[in-house]
Every structure is written in C-alpha cells, then in structure tokens.
C-alpha cells in the first residue's frame, strides 16, 4: 500500500514535469535554428555580391553577365554548405542529449 501512496494518479503532472525537463533542450534547439536562419540569409547573399564584385569582375576581369552566372553558382554552393552544417549540428546535438540520458 505504501507504494501506491507515493505515486501520483494525475498523468498531467508527469507530462508537465517532462516538459519542464526538456525546456533547456528546446531553447537550445531554437537558438540553433535562429543562428542557421541568419546564416542562410546572410552568407549566400554576401558571397554572391562579394564574389561578383571582387573575384569575377575585379580579379578575373569577367563581363557583367558572366559574373552574375558564376556568382550565383557560388551562392548556391554556400546554401548547400550552410544546410550541411545545420544537419551536422542538429545530428550531433541529438546524439549528445542521448548520451546524457535524455530520451524523448
């Protein structure tokens, strides 16, 4: 009988306790998502204009239309690199939580 007295019959308290325990991981996930969102916007656009102006038109003396084309390729490659980094960070973040004993 003593074992029954110590346990709660309210399943909502278990859900609330579980949610509070995951709050730190939720904040970490949102910070990671916001960081990579900012990277996804700034890195490709910045590399597009920088490579167009300084590399293709400046150093390589390409025409205006050719520099647009090659700068777009650089921007697309930058998008893929940022996405790959996000997947890697998300993957390792999940495995580090499992090592700490946090199972969802």
Structure description:
The protein is mainly alpha-helical. The model is unreliable at 15-19 (pLDDT under 50). Helix 3 runs antiparallel to helix 4 (64-99). The longest helix is centred in the middle third of the chain and has 37 residues, at 23-59. The protein is built from 4 helices and no strands.
The main pleated sheet reads as:
none
Q: How many helices does DSSP assign?
A: 4
Question: Could you name the ranges where pLDDT drops below 50 across 5 or more consecutive residues?
Answer: 15-19
The percent range for helix content is: over 70%
The fraction of residues in strands falls at: under 5%
> Per the principal axes of the C-alpha atoms, what is the gross shape?
elongated
Radius of gyration of CA atoms, rounded to a whole number? 24 Å
Helix-strand makeup class: mainly alpha
Can you give the mean pLDDT?
82
Q: What is the N-to-C succession of helices and strands?
A: HHHH
Number of strands: 0
Distance between the termini: 31 Å
């Amino acid at each position: 009988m003593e074992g029954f007295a110590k346990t709660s019959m309210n399943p909502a308290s278990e859900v609330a306790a579980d949610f509070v325990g995951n709050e730190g991981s939720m904040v970490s996930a949102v910070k990671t998502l916001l960081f990579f969102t900012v990277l996804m916007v700034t890195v490709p656009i910045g590399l597009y204009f920088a490579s167009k102006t300084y590399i293709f038109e400046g150093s390589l003396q390409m025409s205006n239309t050719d520099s647009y084309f090659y700068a777009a390729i650089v921007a697309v490659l930058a998008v893929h690199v940022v996405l790959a980094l996000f997947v890697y960070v998300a993957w390792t973040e999940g495995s580090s939580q499992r090592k700490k004993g946090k199972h969802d």
